[in-house]
Write a structure and sequence with these properties.
This is EAL domain-containing protein. This protein is of the alpha/beta class and about 280 residues long. It has helices at about 1-35, 75-85, 85-105, 120-125, 130-140, 155, 160-170, 200-205, 210-225, 240-250, 265-275, and strands at about 40-50, 55-65, 70, 115, 145-150, 175-180, 195-200, 230-235, 255, 265. An 8-stranded mixed barrel has the order 1-2-4-5-6-7-8-9, surrounded by 5 helices. Bound molecules: ligand C2E and calcium ion (3 copies).
């Protein structure tokens, strides 16, 4: 047992060393990659359930490293947050999403909003409203076609969270709460924040067919959102039955693999034509 314990420990430290060095390699590679155009933005359609039309696209960053291949944002976003690269990375995504959405509008595609994820670290940065305003000016995109997705964690990270939100709303952009229900904050913020959309986390959507309690939670979130005059969108929708459930509960919008995976910008136009025909 003693030998096993020792081996176990050895194994653990090796694994730990490996993950520590991968992290530090990635944090260096991140900074370099930003200057080398290794990052792109993919887009996932958001569907209005009643009319079955596209009402938005969520911008999701992608990193194709020349040697390590595709690295998932779930891995590199936390590293970018810890090392401060999130500011440049976030600004890149914001600029790119605004530019792309304007280009789609100019190409004659019916206008929709582009939703950009804003990390709590970015949100706490004093000049976020200026960064957003610059992205709008540079692209020529009207503010109403930009939505910023914030998580509940912005409340902990910025004392001036509500003031910052009002500054952003004053620019004309829309705000949504991402991953709703997975944080630890109290619900009281819902009446204080100038938001217009709640995004139900895929953690709840996933089990609405199999778990009565998750189904009850999703129904309750939808009703609460509507009572508060908020729009509600379900994330991670993968099946027809989930769509039927959400429609029956009058959920406003849905997003997920059932409709589409996040796609490169070039494929969005193709998707759009097919979606309109269907
Ligand atoms: P998120 O904002 O909650 O984004 C939704 C994630 O769910 C995306 O993963 C998306 O590809 C995935 N997804 C969409 N539909 C489905 C589905 O039907 N089933 C399943 N299982 N998954 C689905 P992705 O792109 O890997 O991003 C992971 C997380 O990384 C995001 O979660 C977000 O927190 C962060 N992230 C991605 N792009 C950005 C960005 O530009 N800025 C910041 N700050 N964070 C980002
Ligand atoms: Ca999101
Ligand atoms: Ca989410
Ligand atoms: Ca998430």
């Amino acid at each position: 047992a003693k030998a096993d314990g020792k081996n176990g420990y050895q194994f653990f430290t090796n694994e730990l060393n490996e993950s520590v060095s991968r992290r530090s390699n990635l944090s260096m590679a991140l900074r370099k990659g930003l200057g080398r155009g290794e990052f792109t933005v993919h887009y996932q359609p958001q569907i209005q359930l009643e009319s079955e039309t596209v009402i938005g696209m969520e911008a999701l960053v992608r990193w194709q490293h020349p040697k390590l291949g595709m690295i998932s944002p779930g891995e590199f976003i936390p590293i970018a947050e810890e090392t401060g690269s999130i500011h440049r990375l976030g600004e890149f995504v914001l600029n790119e999403a605004c530019r792309q959405n304007k280009a789609w509008q100019d190409a004659g595609i019916p206008p929709f909003r582009v939703a950009v994820n804003i990390s709590a670290i970015q949100f706490a940065q004093k000049d976020l409203p200026e960064v957003v305003s610059r992205a709008l000016d540079a692209s020529g995109l009207e503010a109403e076609y930009l939505e910023l997705e914030l998580t509940e964690s912005v409340i902990q990270s910025a004392d001036r969270a509500i003031d910052t939100m009002h500054e952003l709303v004053a620019l004309g952009v829309h705000l949504s709460i991402d991953d709703f229900g997975t944080g630890y904050s109290s619900l009281s913020y819902l009446k204080l924040f100038p938001i217009d959309t709640l995004k139900i986390d895929q953690y709840f959507t996933k089990n609405i067919e199999s778990d009565e309690k998750d189904a009850a939670l999703v129904k309750t979130i939808i009703r609460m959102a509507h009572e508060l005059d908020l729009n509600v969108i379900a994330e991670g929708v993968e099946t027809e039955n989930q769509v039927a459930f959400l429609k029956a509960e009058s959920c406003n919008q849905a997003q997920g693999y059932f409709y589409n995976r996040p796609l490169p910008a070039e494929e969005i136009e193709v998707f759009f034509q097919q979606f309109k025909k269907a």
